[in-house]
Design goal:
By secondary structure, the chain is an alpha+beta fold. It folds into 2 domains: 56 residues, 2-Layer Sandwich (Alpha-Beta Plaits), CATH 3.30.70; 181 residues, NADH Oxidase, CATH 3.40.109.10. It is 38% helix and 13% strand. It contains 10 helices and 8 strands. It has a 4-stranded antiparallel β-sheet, sandwiched between helices. A hairpin with an 8-residue loop joins strand 2 and strand 3. Helix 5 crosses helix 7 and helix 5 packs across helix 9. The longest helix is centred in the middle third of the chain and has 23 residues. The chain starts with a strand and ends in a 20-residue tail after the last strand. The relative contact order is 0.14.
Length: 284
């Protein structure tokens, strides 16, 4: 990895303090910054982002990819709080497709999320084809229908309850969803015109954690753009119950889907926010 310190360096030492792998060193404050063990660099970009003099020439961040940050342009804390309070799973969707530019920005926001050790192993599959969307719904309902039949079988019921203790309480919901689909309604995707699948390699240690961080970024960007977003827990559960089948449906060999977000244009917007009872916070 090529990392060089130019003569523009003002020796402030900020890069030394933020580097997670101590690649940059400074013997004493005010002394030159040197590069040690560049092969250990994980490409997080902290050094480039923190340097006030643009003195770091990093192989992964060439000229033109680094931009000054105007902190005055950032949303206020009140604006961020309002956004997170406004974000809701709006299932009242129209058949209008989500604009391509909005989809692009939602995926880009997801890809800005941090990943463990800056591994950046996540991938994004955006499904907008109506036939493929129907296939996702039918796959999910098929898994639940098989579970419902097992729960209804007197000999199999004890084993299913032991293996999937939470499944029994969803039995009425499984039956209701099957009936809704037979009536022409989609109880899974709710008429979403796009679904974002976030996936990682099978051996990724922090696949779920990284994927959910990315999903939260995508969800907040969608809310800011006026796009409804619904976390697809049922699709994820179905994928776990029938391992590898969802990935096969999406052509994701060797990967695991860890977060799913349905996207659509809302028929209307929520008019109010409200205050919830605060969750307990323990300070130690």
């Amino acid at each position: 990895m090529r990392i060089e310190i130019s003569d523009k360096c003002i020796r402030c030492g900020r890069c030394v303090r933020v580097c997670p792998f101590e690649i940059l060193e400074q013997e004493k404050p005010g002394m030159p910054v040197t590069v040690q063990r560049p092969d250990r660099c994980i490409g997080c970009g902290h050094c480039v982002a923190v340097c006030p003099a643009s003195a770091i020439d990093h192989e992964l961040f060439p000229a033109g990819t680094i931009h000054p940050l105007d902190r005055a342009a950032l949303p206020s804390a009140d604006a961020v709080e309002l956004l997170v309070r406004a974000r809701r799973s709006n299932r009242a969707l129209t058949d209008m497709p989500v604009p391509e530019e909005a989809l692009r920005r939602i995926v880009a926001a997801a890809d800005c999320a941090p990943t463990a050790s800056n591994a950046r192993e996540l991938g994004y599959t955006l499904v907008t084809d109506p036939a493929k969307l129907r296939a996702v719904t039918e796959f999910t309902l098929g898994v639940f229908d098989r579970t419902a039949r097992l729960l209804s079988h007197p000999l199999m019921r004890p084993f299913v309850r032991f293996l999937m203790p939470d499944a029994a309480r969803y039995l009425p919901a499984f039956r209701r969803m099957k009936q809704q689909y037979a009536e022409g309604r989609d109880p899974i995707l709710r008429g979403a015109t796009a679904v974002l699948f976030i996936h990682a390699p099978l051996k990724s240690r922090f696949a779920v954690e990284d994927s959910n961080l990315a999903c939260q970024n995508a969800s907040l960007m969608a809310e800011a753009l006026g796009v409804s977003q619904i976390y697809m827990g049922f699709v994820l559960v179905a994928g776990r119950r029938q391992k590898g089948a969802l990935e096969q449906l999406l052509g994701l060999d060797g990967r695991r889907v860890c977060a799913v977000l349905a996207l659509g244009m809302p028929a209307f917007r929520f008019a109010n926010t409200f205050e919830r009872k605060a969750s307990p916070v323990t300070r130690l």
